[in-house]
UniProtKB/TrEMBL annotation:
MF (Gene Ontology): FAD binding; oxidoreductase activity, acting on the CH-CH group of donors, NAD or NADP as acceptor
Gene3D superfamilies xrefs: FAD/NAD(P)-binding domain
Listed name of the protein: Geranylgeranyl reductase
FAD-binding domain residues: 9-146
Keywords: Membrane, Transmembrane, Transmembrane helix
Lineage, opening ranks: Bacteria, Pseudomonadati, Gemmatimonadota, Gemmatimonadia, Gemmatimonadales
Transmembrane segments: 12-30
Any Pfam family: FAD_binding_3
InterPro entries (UniProt xref): FAD-bd, FAD/NAD-bd_sf, Geranylgeranyl_Rdtase_fam, Geranylgeranyl_reductase
Species: Gemmatirosa kalamazoonensis
């Protein structure tokens, strides 16, 4: 690896949750970290703004939970509705916080730890392996780093240029708006209402009478006629809670959308040399619900620890273990969500399951355990698990 003092230890491209956490961990390890983002912070990001237990656990692990929680709203129940509106309440621990606020907080934590943040659009990364990397910026200029970390979310152009992209198409697309309404709601709601299937919708209270409301659809099931704005309208009209929210609505903010990449698929996490990717760039978002902030940060934590090991060893060799580490430590957590994604549209199945869960505390506890990551998802959402749940 180059020893030139002008060469950064790690250049992290993208300062969303994945990039910020990778930068924070490496800076805390004493590495010279450059965080490059094309946007100026604080910046908005289309999102449901919900932090589920995996995200809270990671923030706690790095001592960031209290500062995030201070700017967030806390909720202890999530309610999931099936296509025919049978619902199940899941006891859990959730925060909602606008992404402009969350991401700025995480970037601030990374810079406080010693990372340097610059605004710039990286257009190319040359990976010279043990000789390091060269990053080119839009508008001219380049910089060098021993290692480069791609944390560009669902924007895959750098992955493609580095030969790491395996599937250009995103997994899903989703939109959200903020509705300001007097309607009371004390929980996060996700709905697979039959009027919008194969799409899904959500209503997440942000506190103070603001609700993050949105819908999404898996790209494989979308047709050229799929119109997400129309779907959001149908959702708010057909779903009783949506109607109630709109009836008491004072105003609505602009609709914004973004792509999602699911299931730890779509890209090679390690380019083979000095470049690795973290977060949604490696498809870290969960299928079915589209929750991805927690897992984006978890991939970043694993990638950053291996990058630190590589810098310590003076060779990129430790990064070779990255893909396998992701597969071993995180892959099983996606299995239940993938299966549920396939089965949610099976007529009556989800509603029957949710009805059952209302009367079976153990099944409800299993759903909570799946969300809270204390129960292996495949134990709940598998042919055997479903049979057990429906017949026991
Ligand atoms: C509508 C919607 C709702 C969602 N709801 C939730 C939810 O409620 N909870 C949840 O956990 N997840 C949710 N997700 C998923 C979540 O948004 C992602 O999983 C998460 O943002 C991934 O984080 P990341 O850091 O990998 O990428 P991002 O947050 O997308 O950050 C990538 C960063 O890279 C920068 N960048 C991109 N290209 C370049 C470049 N070439 N040069 C420099 N900078 C670049 C971007 O400006 C951006 O700041 C939702 C997604 C959508 C679309």
């Amino acid at each position: 690896m180059p020893t030139d003092p002008e060469v950064w230890d790690v250049a992290v491209v993208g300062a969303g949750p994945a990039g910020a956490i990778a930068g924070l961990i490496l800076a805390r390890a004493g590495r010279r970290v450059l965080l490059v983002d094309r946007r100026r912070f604080p910046r908005d990001k289309a999102c449901g703004d919900a932090l589920i237990p995996d995200a809270l656990a990671l923030l706690a692990r790095y001592g960031l939970l209290a500062r995030v929680e201070a700017k967030a709203a806390r909720w202890t129940v999530g309610t999931v509705y099936g296509p025919y509106r049978m619902s199940v309440d899941i006891d859990t621990d959730l925060l909602t916080i606008r992404r402009a606020v969350l991401d700025a907080e995480l970037v601030a934590a990374a810079t406080e730890a010693g990372a340097t943040l610059v605004q710039g659009m990286v257009t190319e990364i040359d990976d010279a392996g043990e000789s390091g990397t060269t990053l080119r910026l839009a508008g001219g200029g380049e910089l060098r780093a021993r290692l480069a970390c791609i944390a560009t979310g669902a924007n895959v152009s750098l992955l493609e240029r580095c030969g790491m992209l395996e599937r250009p198409a995103p997994s899903a697309v989703a939109i959200r708006t903020y509705v300001h309404s007097d309607h009371p709601l004390d929980r996060l709601v996700v709905s697979f209402d039959r009027h919008i299937l194969p799409g899904y919708g959500w209503i997440f209270p942000m506190g103070g009478g603001t609700f993050n409301v949105g819908c999404g659809v898996v790209t494989g099931t979308a047709t050229p006629d799929t119109d997400l704005r129309a779907m959001l309208g149908v959702f708010l009209d057909a779903f009783p809670l949506g109607r109630a929210l709109v009836r008491a609505e004072a105003r609505r903010e602009a609709v914004r959308g973004a792509l999602l990449r699911y299931g730890l698929t779509g890209a090679r996490p390690h380019g083979g040399g000095a470049v690795f990717a973290v977060g949604e760039a490696v498809g870290s978002t969960y299928p079915l619900t589209g929750e991805g902030i927690g897992k984006a940060m978890e991939t970043a934590a694993i990638g950053a620890s291996l990058a630190d090991a590589a810098l310590r060893a003076g060779t990129t060799t430790p990064l070779a273990a990255y893909s396998e580490r992701l597969a071993r430590e995180l892959r099983p957590k996606y299995a239940g969500y993938e299966a549920a994604q396939r089965w949610i549209a099976v007529p009556g199945l989800a509603d029957a399951l949710f009805w059952r869960a209302r009367h079976r505390p153990r099944l409800r506890a299993a759903f909570s355990g799946m969300l809270n990551e204390t129960v292996e998802p495949s134990r709940v959402i598998s042919p055997r698990g479903l049979l057990r749940a429906l017949l026991a």
